[in-house]
Amino acid sequence: MSHNVNLHASDPREIISSAKLTELLQEVAPGETLRPEVEEMLRAHAEEFIESVTEQACKLARHRGGTTLEARDIQMHLEKNWNVRVPGYGDDPKPVRRAPPNPVHQQRLQQVQKAQQQP
């Protein structure tokens, strides 16, 4: 499913504006700028990502017998295929399960803590 989308600021379907890209860049790397071709590439990748996620989530919705795309469909696709969990979305938040600590690792941590406490 490919769409020809004009990714200029005047396009109302624009995924991310030049101003927003600049704002994000300044948060990560103050003083840096994006060349127009890099900006175009980032926009194209964002569009492709959203199309792909939407398409796959729709397949999941059909598979579960749904007629409406729901947040849980998108969440499931993002978790299973991208290892991304968006907090606050989906019907059943999963608790984070941590593996029990490795005894050998625990011993090493205790040794490090003891060494740090000694003058």
From TrEMBL:
Q: Name one Pfam family in it.
A: TFIID_20kDa
Which GO molecular function annotations are given, in alphabetical order? DNA binding; protein heterodimerization activity; TBP-class protein binding; translation initiation factor activity
Source organism superkingdom: Eukaryota
Q: Where is the composition biased (Low complexity)?
A: 106-119
Family matches, as SUPFAM superfamilies:
Histone-fold
Major localization listed first in the record, in broad terms: nucleus
A GO CC term attached to the entry: transcription factor TFIID complex
> What CDD domains does this protein's entry cite?
HFD_TAF12
Q: Where is the Transcription initiation factor TFIID subunit domain?
A: 19-84
Keyword annotations for this protein?
Answer: Initiation factor, Nucleus, Protein biosynthesis, Transcription, Transcription regulation
Q: Which BP terms does GO give this entry? A: RNA polymerase II preinitiation complex assembly
Region annotation (Disordered) ranges: 84-119
- The answer, when asked if Metal-binding is one of the entry's keywords, is no
Which subcellular locations apply to this protein?
Answer: Nucleus
- Family the entry assigns: Belongs to the TAF12 family.
Record-given protein name: Transcription initiation factor TFIID subunit 12
